[in-house]
Amino acid sequence: MSHILTLRPGSREFGIAPGIMPAGPRNAITDVPGVKVGHVTLSSRDINTGVTAIIPQPGDLFGDKLTAAVEVINGFGKSAGLVQVAELGTLETPILLTNTFGVGTCSNALIRWAISQRPDIGRETSTVNPVVCECNDGVLSDIQAMAVTEQDAMRAIEAAGQDVAEGSVGAGTGMIAFGFKGGIGTASRQILLQGSAHVLGALVLANFGKAGDLVLPDGRRPDPRIMAEAEKGSIIVVLATDLPLDHRQLARVCRRAGAGIARLGAFYGNGSGDIVLGFTTRNRVPHHSKADVCQLERMADRRMDDAFRAACEATQEAILNAMCAATAVEGRNGATRPLLSDWLRDGHNTGTSEPL
Predict the structure, then answer these.
(1) In a 10 Å sphere around its CB, with 0-12 CB exposed, 13-18 middle and 19+ buried, how is residue 194 labelled?
(2) Which residues lie across from 286 on neighbouring strands?
(3) Among 26, 320, 339, 314, CA closest to 164
(4) Any residues with CB less than 8 A from the CB of 123 and at least 6 apart, and which?
(5) Long-range residue pairs from 245-248, CB within 8 A, at least 24 positions apart, any chain
(6) Per its UniProt record, what InterPro entries does this chain match (predicted)?
(7) 11-329 belongs to which homologous superfamily?
C-alpha cells in the first residue's frame, strides 16, 4: 500500500484557465484561511482507492460549528450526514471523501475522532453528525474488498496540510471522468468585498461524465477512444469560503457549482450522484449559546453574482485539474483509462497561457 503524495501539474500547464476571475495564491481550496486537506492512497494489485480529508478549520468544530449548506443536483449517492447539514445549516466535523462502500467505515472514524476531541458527545450532550461523501471506484478497484479502514481515515485527517495533491490520490485513486482517468482536483477564486480580499475554493472528487462528452473551455472535444458507456458516475464538490454568507446564501452558491460541471459537457445522468457541500469560515454557530439571539454577518445579495461566478469557475477548473493531474492506474481485471494530459500533449495543446 502506498501513502506517498505527489503534486501534479494542473490544467494551466496546458494553457487552460477557465473564466475571468483571479485565482488564489495556491489555486486551491486551502487558499481559504484555516482549511487543510489530507490524503491516504491505497494502491496495490486490484485495490485503487483511498480517503481524502478536508479539515474546515482548526479547533473545536463540534463546539463552534461552521455555517454550511448542501445542493443535491442528482441524488444517486450513499453519503452520510447531508440531511442534518441541509436541515440545521451547520458542519461540525471534518469532511471525508472515499469510495461508496467506505462510507460507514469513515463515519465511524469521524465519530471516534469527534469523541476524542469532545468526550461529552453522546453522553452529556448531543450526538455528532459525521459528514462523508462518496463515489464508486468499482471499475478500477475491487470495491467489494472493503479496503478502507478507520485507521486510513484517521491518517488522512492527520496528514492534512495546505499543499493539496491532485489527480490519482486519496479518494480519487480509482475514479474516472468523461472516459479519462479522473480523481481529486482543486481551484480557487478571489473576491474583493468592501476593500478586503476573500476567497472561494473548490475541491472535487471527479468520477462522472459520459466518454466523448467533455468540452474544454476553448471548444475542443477530447476523445478518450473508448466505448461510451451510460453516464453513471458521480461528482462530489466541496466549496469553502471566508465570505460572510448565511445558510440560504450558501445554498445558492452551491447551486452554481452545477454550472461549472455543466460547462464541461455533463448532463447529470440518471445514475450519477452529483452533490455539492459548501461551508463558510466566517459565521460560526456555538453548540451551547448563552444568548437567545445570535448575530451573524451577511453579504448583500446584490454582490452574490461574484460568489456565483467564483463557484462556477473554481468547480470547472478543479475538475480539469483532477483530470490533467491524474496518473495512470491499472485496476481490477486489468482495467485502465487514458489520461487527458496525454491527449493534450499529443499535438492537441494550443500553447496559450491566457484564460479561455
Answers:
(1) exposed
(2) 64
(3) 26
(4) none
(5) 245/67, 245/280, 245/282, 245/283, 245/298, 245/299, 245/307, 246/67, 246/89, 246/283, 246/296, 246/298, 247/67, 247/68, 247/69, 247/89, 248/69
(6) ArgJ-like_dom_sf (IPR016117), Peptidase_S58_DmpA (IPR005321)
(7) L-amino peptidase D-ALA esterase/amidase (3.60.70.12)
Q: What is the set of active-site residues?
A: 234, 272, 274
CA gap 126, 109 in Å, rounded: 18
Q: What is the pLDDT along the chain (356 residues), one digit of tens a residue?
A: 333 344 557 999 999 999 999 999 999 999 999 999 999 999 998 999 999 999 999 999 999 999 999 999 999 999 999 999 999 999 999 999 999 999 999 999 999 999 999 999 999 999 999 999 999 999 999 999 999 999 999 999 999 999 999 999 999 999 999 999 999 999 999 999 999 999 999 999 999 999 999 999 999 999 998 877 777 789 999 999 999 999 999 999 999 999 999 999 999 999 999 999 999 999 999 998 888 988 889 999 999 999 999 999 999 999 999 999 999 999 988 999 999 999 999 865 544 333 33
Distance CA 21, CA 39 (A): 28
Written as nine digits, the cell of 154 is 484517521
Cell of 243: 465570505
**Judging by DSSP bridges, how do beta strands 36-44 and 47-55 pair with one another?**
antiparallel
Joined together, the cell numbers standing for residue 80 give 452520510
